[in-house]
């Protein structure tokens, strides 16, 4: 099992354990007999460790009842409810806690932060937004509240607000958020491009480069804008710069780049660039592009010779597929039947493959996403390298 999953599964346990340990210390200091408390806690923890969360909740609920003043008990419970997906129960519990008279300001803001997370989880984004905005205004748990607000604005695709709050977060924590802000500007540029607002798109790209001069995505959108305007020489400059900025995205950058080389009739430049790439990039895309280039320029024989020599050094299923397609016409008789089976199997092998993977959470995808749909990180989804991948 992935150690991360184990860790994630044990988080609520760790949360309750830590809380329980702190209660013991408090109880000892106060001279309270902890023996009766601890047997119940041990029972609850035992249930948690055995993943019998229903029974664990029962025990902790009893404890909360028994010890009405303990805010931490309620917080631990609310957290458990939310993690189990019982968001309505978590909301009721946290709302009750917030409205409790005599609650210290510090505890109230912790409960508000939890309540905001409950609202987010249940899709009540307006309520969550208002609550987190209040916490920021009170300067209470402001960095956490700001991060939640940025997550909400990303979900709503309100990139201007996302940028504004990311900047505030930078000022507050001193952390560098510019790679994320550059992505927000790229989102704005892409939207403007799709709506035909080309000057606006260029202005957003300028802002993205201000944040991150080597922003591969901004280079890619720049290339696309130039290509759409028929400026293929400029598109080539931008797309070559994109590969130099981050060659991991080569499989996505090469198709439009090859198109612009062809439109600008710069096939010599294409060959030189791809040849150069082969020395420092270990994926199969440049090899397949060169195979295609040689097929068009020098004929099928030259293309197959080049590809065969390359595949001996770098085994690749995608390369094999290209080779099978190129040689199919030459196979006759009984051997052809077997050949077709082999070709069919190879195609199925490729179809079932995830071509991209998030290097933060392991999410696999067939198409590229700039933001991981699973862990919401930016630029972490990359083409998979290896025999069956890039
Ligand atoms: Zn991810």
What share of residues is helical? over 70%
Query: In CATH, what is the homologous superfamily of the largest domain?
Result: Tetratricopeptide repeat domain
Oligomer: single chain
What is the N-to-C order of secondary-structure elements (H for helix, E for strand)? HHHHHHHHHHHHHHHHHHHEEE
CATH class designation of the largest domain? Mainly Alpha
Shape, per Cα inertia axes: elongated
For the largest beta-sheet, the strand count, sense and barrel status come to: 3 strands, antiparallel
Please state the second-level CATH architecture of the largest domain.
Answer: Alpha Horseshoe
CATH topology of the largest domain: Serine Threonine Protein Phosphatase 5, Tetratricopeptide repeat
- Provide the number of structural domains: 4
The average pLDDT is 86
Number of strands: 3
Strand content: under 5%
Determine the structural class based on helices, strands and strand pairing: mainly alpha
Count of runs of 4 or more consecutive helical residues: 19
> Distance between termini?
26 Å
Q: Are any ligands bound, and if so which?
A: zinc ion
Radius of gyration: 29 Å
Give the neighbour order of strands across the main sheet: 2-1-3
């Amino acid at each position: 099992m992935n150690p991360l999953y184990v860790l994630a599964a044990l988080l609520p346990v760790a949360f309750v354990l830590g809380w329980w340990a702190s209660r013991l210390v408090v109880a000892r200091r106060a001279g309270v007999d902890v023996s009766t408390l601890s047997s119940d806690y041990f029972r609850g923890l035992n249930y948690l460790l055995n993943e019998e969360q229903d029974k664990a909740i029962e025990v902790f609920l009893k404890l909360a009842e028994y010890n009405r003043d303990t805010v931490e008990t309620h917080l631990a419970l609310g957290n458990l409810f939310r993690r189990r997906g019982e968001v309505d129960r978590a909301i009721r519990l946290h709302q009750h806690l917030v409205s409790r008279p005599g609650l210290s300001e510090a505890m109230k803001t912790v409960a508000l932060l939890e309540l905001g997370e409950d609202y987010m989880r249940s899709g009540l984004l307006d309520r969550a937004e208002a609550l987190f905005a209040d916490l920021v205004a009170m300067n209470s748990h402001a960095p956490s509240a700001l991060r939640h607000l940025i997550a909400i604005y990303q979900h709503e695709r309100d990139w201007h607000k996302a940028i504004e709050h990311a900047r505030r977060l930078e000022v507050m924590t001193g952390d560098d958020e510019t790679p994320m802000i550059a992505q927000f500007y790229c989102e704005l540029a892409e939207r403007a491009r799709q709506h035909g607002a080309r000057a606006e798109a260029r202005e957003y790209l300028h802002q993205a480069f201000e944040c991150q001069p080597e922003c591969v995505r901004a280079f890619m959108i720049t290339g696309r804008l130039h290509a759409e305007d028929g400026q293929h020489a400029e598109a080539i400059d931008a797309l070559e710069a994109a590969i130099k900025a981050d060659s991991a995205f080569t499989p996505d950058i090469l198709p439009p780049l090859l198109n612009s080389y062809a439109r600008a009739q710069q096939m010599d430049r294409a060959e030189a660039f791809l040849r150069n790439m082969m020395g420092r990039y270990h994926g199969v895309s440049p090899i397949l592009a060169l195979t295609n280039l040689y097929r068009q320029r020098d004929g099928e024989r030259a293309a197959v010779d080049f590809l065969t020599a390359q595949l001996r050094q770098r085994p690749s299923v995608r390369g094999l597929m290209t080779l099978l397609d190129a040689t199919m016409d030459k196979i006759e008789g009984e051997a052809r039947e077997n050949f077709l089976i082999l070709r069919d199997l190879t195609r199925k092998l490729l179809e079932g493959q995830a071509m991209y993977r998030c290097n933060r959470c392991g999410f696999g995808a067939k198409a590229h996403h700039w933001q991981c749909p699973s862990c919401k990180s930016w630029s972490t989804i990359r083409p998979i390298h290896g025999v069956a991948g890039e």
